[in-house]
Design goal:
Blueprint lengths: L4 H8 L8 E5 L4 H13 L7 E8 L9 H12 L3 E5 L8 H16 L5 E3 L4 H13 L4 H4 L5 E3 L4 E3 L7 H10 L16 H16 L3 H30 L12 E3 H5 L3 H12 L12 H8 L7 E4 L2 E6 L2 E6 L10 E2 L7 E2 L5 E6 L7 E3 L6 E4 L3 E4 H8 L3 H4 L4 E4 L2 E4 L14 E6 L3 H4 L2
Parallel strand pairs: 1-2, 1-4, 2-3, 4-6
Antiparallel strand pairs: 5-6, 7-10, 8-9, 9-10, 11-14, 12-13, 13-19, 14-17, 15-16, 17-18
Helix pairs in contact: 2-7, 5-8, 5-9, 9-11
Length: 439
Amino acid sequence: MKPTLTAKLLQTLGPWRNAPAWHIAFSGGLDSSVLLHLLASLAKTETLPTLSAVHIHHGLQVAADAWPSHCQAVCDSLSVPLRIMRVQVQSGASLERAARDARYWAFNEVTGAGDVMLTGQHRDDQAETLLFRLLRGAGVRGLAAMPVYRPLVAGHLVRPLLDIARAELETYAHEHQLKWIEDPSNADPRFSRNYLRHRVFPALQERWPQVVASLARTADHLCEAQGLLDELAEMDLQAADRPAPFPWLCLSSLALAPLRELSDARQRNALRHWLTPLTRLPDSDHWAGWLSLRDAKGDAQPQWRLADGALHRCGERIWWLPATWSEFSDASVSWPHPQNPLELPGNGQLKFIGKVPEGPLVVRYRQGGEIVEVPGRGRRDLKRLLNESGLPGVVRGRLPLLYQGEQLLGVPSLPGLWRGPSGDWQLHWMPQTCDQGLS
């Protein structure tokens, strides 16, 4: 006996039955209208997390101004609370991508810790996504199309209808006399997905009636293949993920030597896996930047610029620096109450451990030519000492230096450079964390 739509939905949502809340992304269209009605009906007979709906108003067309009132009426009839969020869609080359980014911003705003955001994409959407990405030359990760689950900042996004055909959703909607919104922009063939939906897929289905199911099945196979590639990447990264020599420096980094031992393809696979939570991944042509960084001379300190930051090499280690890392003030900062930690604008915090030196103290940043008194070694050139320490070059410019008048008293957090002349104090720098450095 073929399982009902309700049974399929309950089975898919099984892993999230104990979530604090379920939020339904409710556009008012067919897919989300069916999803909302299904869940509201299930809530009468099943113990489910607290249900609510969110309507995201992009403000991209005049017709959309009437949609919030429709969504409110539907939610009122089902006794489901509705939150209406107006978002700003940034101008750019791809309106579709900008609208998607705005939606995900709203999803993250709404979804609390452990909560689930439910969206209504179905099997036909999955097939369209696969074909669209195939035409763009996507790799295995892209061709795996939309996963049933993906993490949000605090909770989860789940697509419980991905295995359901649009025709099945239409049948349900008609049986229950649902009313839904038809977005006029969905008929505009200037948008790539609409072109595929209205021009390409009808021609494909005329020749291959099962094309939607076949493409969705291919996406499942590719998703499984991507899972195996991820497992291989984690194995390869274990050797490269050695502890950094500067544990107080909260930046992601890898040892280079273990990566060099891998084939080029496995290097790219491992780096894609490592970079995925940090930045948008580069296209195939852009990977030449990795080869230049990997093969540069040891003292070259090259970098590979990516969409949301840059990969830097220092000696035999590579470091990820988010784009916002350089956004700090290098102006001098007075420290009138050194018994308390000093907040450095855009650069974390500085604090003493032990007896605080007497006299007015100022924090400055490197200008070049600095000399520091090192216990047991006398006066030494700071640049040479930093070279000896192996501190990444990109960090040195924001290393806070403690001065008393024109005398450099100490450099924080580097062994041998942080103690006072009598060894009765230490200076510690806590840079901004990686989370603070990422949008």
